[in-house]
Amino acid sequence: MHFSDQQISTLDKSFRRNLINSVTGFKSVALIGTKSQEGTTNVAPFSQIIHVGADPAMIGVLFRPHTVKRHTLENILTTKVYTINHITAEFLAEVHHTAARWQQSEFEACKLQEEYLEGFEAPFVRNAKIKIGLSLVERLDVQSNGTHLIIGVIKHLIAPEEVVGKDGFIDLEAAGTLTSSGLDSYHKTKRLARFTYAKPNVSLKKLLE
Amino acid sequence: MHFSDQQISTLDKSFRRNLINSVTGFKSVALIGTKSQEGTTNVAPFSQIIHVGADPAMIGVLFRPHTVKRHTLENILTTKVYTINHITAEFLAEVHHTAARWQQSEFEACKLQEEYLEGFEAPFVRNAKIKIGLSLVERLDVQSNGTHLIIGVIKHLIAPEEVVGKDGFIDLEAAGTLTSSGLDSYHKTKRLARFTYAKPNVSLKKLLE
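ok -> structure tokens follow
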């Protein structure tokens, strides 16, 4: 099938939403935990998460336009801290359910446990094995559609010792971290290979299979 | 294991690079195809790819600082067009090898075939099943570390008919699209579930298993 830009613009809205949200490929998916200035916690799933830099260690999250109430974005802009918590199959249904428009904290509504580090205000998700605590450093506004790229620097990185390799590589698959596609599909992974650094005219070797 | 920001800043450089590149979770990974003004084609793997919006249909790619020669970024800024091509296991070794510093076009060096659409200058990768042709619409410069978010609008979207669902959802798993983690690890996927839209106090149903 071939869709041109003109055809895409005339597609049924829901069809287009599913099509365009899935065509970027598999995504990171994680729970972002925040707390309002009044002390109400919030947790919700996000899949537009990207590596921004290793030194300083920074991560970006793209948020939809701030035209309606978006608790996660508001809490980050107000309190400047937030957490990113990886998702595993053990609590996947709870994760997807946090996306609903709950009146109370999604931690309570969806039976997820809050966890705190001393001196860091934002809630981590106890169920998660890999967790990151971030501090807001930059906000970029996309002119074309009003979305916001929120960039944070890593203040805390927590991972089970057995999944962190000697070279620093975190074996996400061994940790059970999931990936997502489209708006509502979640997947486990199966490693094909880790390759050595690519050089011209040198055959690739596999580090892991 | 718990790494604080201070510990992260004193880690061995290569260890930190692997650690921070893997902690964001599984990523999209795709080949970006471009052509220079002089007509030399270029193709290279990128994994910082995010959905920006469905209407207009826009995708973002984060590029490292433009302090050394970066052919893909230069070609996009000059010619304003580029392609994103999904990766499958059938040509994974060729994909990873395109990341090396080749003197000639990586298409030729890595035995990948170019493919063109009439009226669209950037090369698609024939080996890919899902391919996107984009036109540059916006460039955002990250002040914190000099990276660049390049946003393009989808001009062409190509996918096999059998993987595009009636609701627009593209079954990436059926198409054999891979995901990546860290700098050098590639993975197949196995669907756990597609869920219905999340509502408060309503049990989730699975659309697909």
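Chain A touches chain B through 111 residues (CB under 8 Å).
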